[in-house]
Amino acid sequence: MSLLSVPTELLELILEHLDRQSDINALVQTCHHFYDNFNGALYRLNVKLFSRSALLWAARFGHEGTAAKSLKERPFVEIYDENGLTPLLLAINSNCESIFRRLLMLTGLDLEAKGWVRRTPLATAASLGRQEMVKLLLEKGADLESRDQDCQTPLILAAVDGHEEIVKLLLDNGASLECKDILGQTAVSWAAERGHAKTVELLLVKGAVPDSSDNYGRTPLSFAAKNGHDTVAKLLLEAGADPNSKTMDGNTPLIYAAMYSREAVAVIRLLLEAGSDPTIMNNGGLTAVLLASTDWGTKDPNIVVVNLLLQETTRWMRARAAYYNCSW
């Protein structure tokens, strides 16, 4: 007797009592008739006995059809994969907007479920530059100030990677400008360190403090100088950043530039023109010119920088001597 001659209702009853996905899968792959009538049983079994793993797989790899079939079977209950990630987080990671939108419509979805490094869906989307997903999550009321394991907010994460439009979107929805992470860095501090000039400019226009200091006293200008980001340094100086701010070690932005960005002559010129004092010594008693003329590992001294700092140091010392002579 052929299986095709067995009443559909009877086969459905049999399938409902199977407990292996492979058995049902083997059947539905034999012909279109069985696929059309019994593929749903495969997804029902997956929901019943395997915690809707098909949905997790679909979200991870961006298979909308599989996700749709899985979600048709029984009311949705939040689920997690072996790494603690929800379907929503997986859809964000795989950048599958269609599955993401479908999931957002569900009752029982946890918008604040945390995955890798304790990041929420909004934080994950902000970090990865998923602008439309960020917009949709904000419309659903996602927490703007959630923090990951490093105490970084969605705004800080967006600033780290220079996602300017997402930064604007978060700020327009009320994100806090001056939240600090575990290192004491703000969004503008991170954007300055990474050299994201447009993001720095946006944050400054929105009112970010240009001289916010981290746990070690490093300011956004310190980071920009250290990494040779002259455009960012110019923006910060124009916003009122102190060219002679000191870290806990007594290092100024000029000292950082002399130590770490010896090829970035433009940054050093910019700092000097803004009033950076080349005679300032750090806690080790070293000035910018001394540090610039020292061999730091693979970074040989830059003669142009050394000469420039020597000239400015001499000029400052002469001006200071003249001032003291006049005062006597």
Automatic annotation (TrEMBL):
It comes from the Eukaryota. Pfam families: Ank, Ank_2. ANK repeats lie at residues 117-149, 150-182, 183-215, 216-248, 249-283. Keywords: ANK repeat, Repeat. The keyword Repeat applies. It is an enzyme of class 2 (transferase). This is protein S-acyltransferase. It comes from Penicillium subrubescens.
